[in-house]
Amino acid sequence: MNPEYLLHWLGDWALWGTLIVVFIECGVLFPILPGDSLLFAVGLFIAQGTIHVPLWLACVMLTVAAFLGNVSGYYIGRFLGTSLFKNPDARFLKPKYIEQTHEFFERYGPRALVLARFVPIVRTFITIVAGAGRMDPKKFFLWTGVGAVIWAPGITLLGHALGNVEFIHKNLEAALVLLVLISLIPMVVEYFLAKRRNRRSPDSSGDAPRHAAPR
């Protein structure tokens, strides 16, 4: 799980290993992977010359891996449907998540997919639930693509920009932890904004009828 160790261990295959991790974390039901920190470390290693790949090419490849991971997650949810959500006591795949996620997308629109990119674990399961909830494919592809373009190159470029900063080298582990905490900020902000909107809404009492996700 240590991105620096993992990239050194992969050696010449560092970028390819990162592509696999990003793909899996973005939609193949295995969320506990160091996606953010790996992207940052890849940018840093490219700046150092440890990874011998042009920065622009790495950004393109990582964006494609993130996008395809989400597409895979979407179709896993779409084809398996509610069979993923049978156990009401499950830690992640609870039946109520289908309806709640449908309502979440209806309320927040494309922001849901873009914001979720920056939150570990959430970025894996939101695609599964989007597929199970039958979100419109065109809308999903468009906005998960927007999220991939912002997320993968954004964090990689940040790592590259800081790649020659001595303080970052000496405190890389602390810098990666800080990166994960910063990545949670958009979702925390959206959470409090949503609570504020709910307090102002006349239907916030919870008496409004719910609409089940389309099958």
UniProtKB/TrEMBL annotation:
Organism: Kribbella karoonensis
Signal peptide coordinates: none
InterPro entries assigned to the protein according to its UniProt record, in alphabetical order: DedA-like, VTT_dom
UniProt protein name: VTT domain-containing protein
Domain VTT: 33-160
Protein's membrane topology: Multi-pass membrane protein
Coiled-coil positions: none
Keywords: Cell membrane, Membrane, Transmembrane, Transmembrane helix
Annotated TM spans: 13-46, 53-76, 140-162, 174-194
Sequence similarity: Belongs to the DedA family.
Entry's localization field: Cell membrane
